[in-house]
Amino acid sequence: MTTGHDTAAASPAKGGAAPGRPPAGAPETEREQRRRARLSRRWQRDVRWSPYAFVSPFFLLFLAFGLFPLVYTGWASLHQVELTAPTDMNWVGLRNYTRIFDDDFFWNAARNTLTIGVISTVPQLLMALGLAHILNYRLRASTFYRVAMLAPYATSIAAASLVFVLLFGRDYGMINWALGAVGIDNIDWQNDKWPSQIAVSTIVIWRWTGYNALIYLAAMQAIPQDLYESAALDGANRWQQFFHVTLPALRPTILFTVVVSTIGASQLFGEPLLFDANKGASGGSQHQFQTLGLYLYEQGWVNQHLGRASAIAWTMFLILIVIGIVNYVISRRLRASG
Amino acid sequence: MTTTLTEPPAQETERPRRPKAARAGGTLHAGPVAYVILALFAIGSLFPLVWTAIAASRDNNRLAETPPPFWFGSNLMDNLDIAWSDANLGEAFLNTTIVAGISALTIVVLSTVAGFAFAKLRFKGRNALMLIVIGTMMVPPQLSVIPLYMMVAELDWTDQLQAVILPSLVSAFGVFFMRQYLLQALPDELIEAARVDGAGSWRVVWHIVFPAARPAMAVLGMLMFVQTWNDFLWPFLVLTQTGNPTVQVAVAGLGRGYTPDQSLIMAGALLGTLPLLLVFAIFGKQIVGGIMQGAVKG
Question: CB 3.0–4.6 Å: which of A1, A119, B107, B199 could bond B194 by disulfide?
Answer without folding.
Answer: B199
